[in-house]
Amino acid sequence: MPPRAVVDTNVLYTGLRSRNGASFQILDGLWQRRWILVLSNTILTEYEEVLKRNAPSLGLTVERVDALLDAFCALAECHEPAGFWTPILPDPDDEAFVQLAVGAKVSCLVSHNLRHLAPARAVGVNLLAPRDFLAMLKA
Known about the structure:
Largest sheet: 5 strands, parallel
Structural class: alpha/beta
Number of strands: 5
Helix content: 40-55%
Distance between the termini: 14 Å
CATH class: Alpha Beta
């Protein structure tokens, strides 16, 4: 079974901004079904907000962003975290990623922001930079 991962918005944005680098290759691996994206409604809403706000700089239309989000949903495993969650991160906007990673018991949480997400390790989340996740996919 392919690895299951939660992906921070910064990886998605970077992968769409440039065809160079690990973030783009991770997205390419998603299209090839080499790994499974785990999504929640909260994270999908953040993806939508960030991608639509930055659509012009990404060379995308709002309609193309909608099509991309639909494609992500079609490939993703949807999971809604249940129960009470005690915040553990300095940035409340990042909590949904950690909560989903814990609740869905994913292989890892992939982000460019490992320093800000470091407290997630205390609750069992395997944090990986895009290059490390890509290496795991290639192994």
